[in-house]
Amino acid sequence: MTRSDDAPGPAPSVTENDLWLMSYYRSSEINGALFFGRVARTIRGPLVVDVTHHFSDEANHASYWTQCIDALDLRPIRQSRSYQDRYMEAVGVPANLMEVMAITQVFEKRVIGQYRLQQRYSGTHPLVRGTIEKIMLDERWHVKYVREALESMAGEYGRDTIEQTLTRYTAADEEVYAATLAEFGERIAFLSETDARHPG
After folding, report:
1. I want to staple 30 with a disulfide (CB 3.0 to 4.6 A). Which of 49, 59, 62, 65 is the partner?
2. pLDDT: is 128 or 80 the higher one?
3. Which domain holds residue 68?
4. What is the CATH number of the domain that holds 33?
5. In this structure, is residue 190 part of a structural domain?
6. Is 1 within a domain?
7. What angle do CA 67, 69, 73 make, to 5 degrees?
8. Could you give the 3-state DSSP secondary structure of residue 48?
């Protein structure tokens, strides 16, 4: 019996670099949960529901990556520092809720861009792809509610101040991403073929 042309082929193998990247995602989500847990514990006012929901999402995402790695019969690779650690080193701890929202907006856009890059990569394992698809449902909401929160803060902080803060954090994000590539670029070089196929 021959296999139909439209029948799915074997799943791509999972390399050590794949596992490293999944572990890095997992570590980043854990740190995101810890960060938003602290914010949720101290925040007052109308954003308390959304921020607490965000904290819950980040914890769930860490669980999704842990389950994905386990389903592949693998164990996470320990990470010394997460992406958020590098952020705090570059810009310091946010001083107020507006800065929390601003740094979150910039970071979530980076996360979405990275996950989209991985989704477009032809060698992404179906379990990894499915995990990203689940997470992306939440990530799009994160960007939406944070954008709306920043818009609502214009009266208190001023639009110019908010835009300047976003510009500052965007520059820091580009610096952090460049430093991450310089240190771990060989770990994610397998995704570079996606850039060639999908410029921009």
Report:
1. 62
2. 128
3. 16-197
4. 1.20.1260.10
5. yes
6. no
7. 105
8. helix
Mean pLDDT of the region 96-111: 95
Torsion of CA 157, 160, 162, 166, to 10 degrees: -160
CB 65 within 8 A of CB 7: no
Q: Is the CA virtual torsion 62, 35, 189, 7 positive or negative?
A: positive
**Would 72 be classed as within a structural domain?**
yes
140 by Cβ neighbours in 10 Å (0-12 / 13-18 / 19+) ranks as: exposed
Q: Which residues 6+ apart lie within 8 Å of 21 measured at CB?
A: 118, 187, 188
Reduced to 3 states (helix: H, G, I; strand: E, B; else coil), residue 150 is: helix
Residue 116 · residue 191 · CB < 8 Å: no
- Give the global pTM: 0.87
pLDDT, tens digit, 9 for 90 and up, residues 5-41: 454 556 678 999 999 999 999 999 999 999 999 999 9
Q: At what angle do helices 48-71 and 126-152 cross, to 10 degrees?
A: 170
Classify residue 11: in a domain, yes or no. no
Rounded to whole angstroms, how far apart are CA atoms 2 and 125?
24
The reported pLDDT for the residue numbered 13 is 82
Q: How many residues does the chain have?
A: 200
What letter would DSSP give residue 178? H
Average pLDDT over residues 93-107: 95
Q: Are 26 and 100 in contact (CB under 8 A)?
A: no
CA distance 48 to 150: 14
Tokens of 129: 């792809």
